[in-house]
């Protein structure tokens, strides 16, 4: 490192390296293709209602994979991709792991940077969750048992759902609309994101980064939070997880942490395809 220090001892090149998972794991495209193949199989074999609109924008759609029995808990799955890539079509496979447990899986889409700013991306995820609560009975879900699950950027967005003032967001919404969240390799402090290469697409200013950082939010509801990580992560990802853990533990809210040896940033969600995997079982214990 030889450049100007811009964040916690890192210069721009070193900070970029901390967050450039695609450079760290060059075979990432193979993983993306695998998720697409798995998800296509899931949509072909499981009952599902695809591309359901939760808002007025073309990107505001979601896919519903109902449970085998009515009145089931609902798991909202939020895809990753650093807020600028991928979509819900990569994560249908998650329903394979939860349908045998009689859980409704709802995989949501949202607008991507640079066309959409972070404020709007967070708003869309909140709008999707509100739609799920209002319409749960139409697809056999229990609106009093909605939970969030996300990977990477999706982990950030799942945490932001817990930070939502739901009655202020929409008339009639309960304060505890989302009962718990599981964040896999999530981002909780967006200041280093603002300062690294990712902001070329995200275009956040300092205020927007803070407004959308889970570590800087108020949490009015004591909802359980689980942080999941692999053992092949950068130092900054570990720091991010520790910072979020400190926030939750300072509140005294239910908190758990799960480390999955041998899994990296991209493979971390793979076990969700299996109903009996350690990760799926851990999520079910929280639901």
Topology:
Elements: E1 5-7, E2 10-11, H1 12-19, H2 21-24, H3 28-45, E3 49-53, E4 61-65, E5 72-78, H4 94-98, E6 104-108, H5 118-135, E7 141-151, H6 153-162, H7 166-169, E8 180-184, H8 191-195, H9 199-202, H10 206-211, E9 225-232, H11 235-251, E10 255-264, H12 278-286
Parallel strand pairs: 5-6, 5-7, 7-8, 8-9, 9-10
Antiparallel strand pairs: 1-2, 3-4, 4-6
How does this structure look, described?
The chain contains twelve helices and ten strands. The protein has helices at residues 12-19, 21-24, 28-45, 94-98, 118-135, 153-162, 166-169, 191-195, 199-202, 206-211, 235-251, 278-286, and strands at 5-7, 10-11, 49-53, 61-65, 72-78, 104-108, 141-151, 180-184, 225-232, 255-264. An eight-stranded mixed beta sheet has the order 3-4-6-5-7-8-9-10, with helices on both faces.
Radius of gyration equals: 18 Å
Distance between the termini: 45 Å
Summarize the amount of helix as a percent range: 25-40%
Low-confidence stretches: none
Give the overall form: globular
Count of β-strands:
10
Strand order of the largest sheet: 3-4-6-5-7-8-9-10
- Output mean pLDDT: 97
């Amino acid at each position: 490192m030889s450049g100007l220090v811009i964040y916690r001892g890192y210069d721009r090149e070193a900070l970029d390296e901390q967050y450039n998972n695609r450079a760290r794991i060059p075979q990432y495209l193979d993983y993306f293709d695998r998720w697409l193949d798995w998800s296509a199989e899931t949509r072909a074999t499981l009952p599902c209602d695809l591309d359901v609109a939760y808002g007025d924008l073309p990107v505001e759609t979601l896919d519903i994979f109902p449970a085998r029995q009515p009145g089931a808990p609902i798991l909202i799955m939020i895809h990753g991709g650093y807020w600028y890539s991928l979509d819900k079509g990569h994560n249908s496979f998650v329903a394979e792991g939860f349908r045998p447990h009689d859980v409704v899986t709802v995989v949501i889409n949202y607008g991507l940077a640079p066309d959409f700013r972070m404020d709007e991306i967070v708003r869309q995820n909140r709008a999707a969750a509100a739609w799920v609560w209002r319409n749960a009975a139409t697809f056999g879900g229990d609106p009093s048992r909605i939970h969030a699950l996300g990977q990477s950027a999706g982990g950030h967005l799942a945490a932001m759902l817990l930070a939502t003032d739901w009655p202020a967001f929409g008339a009639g919404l309960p304060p505890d609309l989302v009962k718990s969240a599981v964040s896999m390799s999530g981002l909780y402090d967006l200041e280093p994101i603002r300062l690294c290469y990712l902001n070329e697409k995200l275009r956040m200013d300092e205020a927007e980064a803070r407004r959308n950082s889970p570590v800087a939010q108020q949490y009015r509801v004591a909802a359980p939070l689980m942080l999941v990580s692999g053992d092949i992560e950068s130092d900054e990802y570990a720091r991010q997880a520790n910072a979020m853990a400190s926030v939750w533990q300072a509140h005294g809210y239910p908190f758990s942490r799960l480390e999955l040896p041998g899994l990296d940033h991209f493979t971390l969600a793979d076990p969700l395809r299996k109903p009996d995997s350690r990760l799926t079982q851990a999520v079910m214990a929280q639901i």
